[in-house]
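ok so for the tutorial part 2 we go from a plain amino acid sequence to predicted structure tokens. step 1 is just haveing the sequence, like this:
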Amino acid sequence: FAHAWSSITYPLNGEFEIFTTKMGIPDAAPNGGDVIFKLIADGEEIYDSGSVTKGQIESVTIDVRGVNELILEVDTNGSQDCDHACWLDPRLYTATYSNVCELSWINEEHSWSPPMASSETYKGVVYSKSIYAHAHSKITYNLNKQYERFTSCIGLRDGAVKGDVIYYVFADGVKIYESGLLRNGDLSKVDISVRGANQLVLEVGINADQDSD
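step 2 — the prediction. this is what the tokens look like for a chain of 213 residues:
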């Protein structure tokens, strides 16, 4: 809890990679609050929430690699009346991670060719640890509640003549991500929480036919 205006400084000493939090005005606060949440890394503002009022929740996931000092600041957006502000479940993550390509899947389904770990090139950039999965495909991994986030770049490999696909991520049977339609030349990024998940499913769906998917 940090009534605006407030500023909290933490020494990170370059030891962390990611900062995540949700932000809002608590239910118990009187009506009328209006605040702005800010993050300042080594004297440089790296995030500004814009106006946040009661009943509104914002979230941020931001890179803090190399940061020595992080400041969590809450500004008023008008008067200070009822500006009760909360940083909700703020977390810092270190660089410890597992590459999914190095994990053994427990099940896979495919309609064209089986998925496989590979090195892929996209617009001339080599992604040495990738998973090639022709649509339609579905790959299932056991996480056993050991992980916090899943991140990935997704797209059609260089050399695909055409193709249009949709990527999905499921955690314990619940869809937690859908990419929307991606065509040849598109690249998107996934960065989602998998906290508490026992099982992760990566699925690539077809949009029309399977040609070049």
